[in-house]
Amino acid sequence: MNYNLKPMKYFVDVVQTHGFSSAAKRNYVSETAVSSAIRHLEDDLGVQLINRTPTSLSLTASGQFFYLRAVQVLEAYGEIWRHPEQQPAGLLRIHFLQGLEADAAAFAEHLGPSRQLSFDEEPFTDAFTRLLAHDYDILIGFELAFSGNTKLQAFPLRKVGFDVLCNTQALATQPDAPTLSHAGKLYLQHWKSTGIADIQAVMVNKYAHNGWGYASIAQVNSFQAAALAVNFKGGVALVPDDFRVPAHCNNLTRLSPKHLEQAFNVVAAISRDRQELFEGMILKAISSSYR
């Protein structure tokens, strides 16, 4: 892919000055250089941008569309050079906790095509501090993490359940999965207490019903790591109900206990001091994507 902006600028100048000669003068190059650059641009794009006759020039339909986008690109490029440390106007920074990629995508899909977006996965230990510091704009996470925090505003997106992964070979030696769970480790994604809510304690409390339990708790850095540990070492793991089991994990049995179905709310959270800035946009996206 050609990232040279000079042919794009030549094309914009041809349109704005109504000719190759005037565009060449604007750029202090020959008319042949401008014409050749635009020909190569058309070849790279695979479309004709300009209708050329001996007496006139006009834009094709593709040329009209490309011109509008090219002007935006060149303006943005100029803005970067003028203000290299300034956040682009209109850029919305969406971060999400591990395992909630699909929720971030579903939410972003309904923010509108003109919205500039950036995405990143946010480590749980830093998520709230950075959100309150405006290091990013919106956090997609679990509602239980925001309990009692008056500095954050959370907007419910959907309910999500959790499944239990068991080691298939070990399960075959026990009467049932709850019995198996008491004999080994419970693998949890590492959710450090935020000072707002102890996520691990809440997760374990919701899990330990109807005969389910554990001999000890092991913290790992991701749901994928939890699944791998159970597959090769035994024990059980808690994972979201839409979690994709890693490839080559062929020794896992997946169960969906009733008490963990739709047990948790996924939310979009913002710093409350930016509520006026983002609330209307978030509510509009939610109404169209989750109704």
Automatic annotation (TrEMBL):
Keywords: DNA-binding, Transcription, Transcription regulation. Transmembrane segments: none annotated. InterPro entries: LysR_HTH_N (IPR000847), WH-like_DNA-bd_sf (IPR036388), WH_DNA-bd_sf (IPR036390). Residues 1-60 form the HTH lysR-type domain. It comes from the Bacteria. GO terms for molecular function: DNA binding; DNA-binding transcription factor activity. The keyword Transcription applies. The keyword DNA-binding applies. Belongs to the LysR transcriptional regulatory family. PANTHER family: HTH-TYPE TRANSCRIPTIONAL REGULATOR. This is Transcriptional regulator.
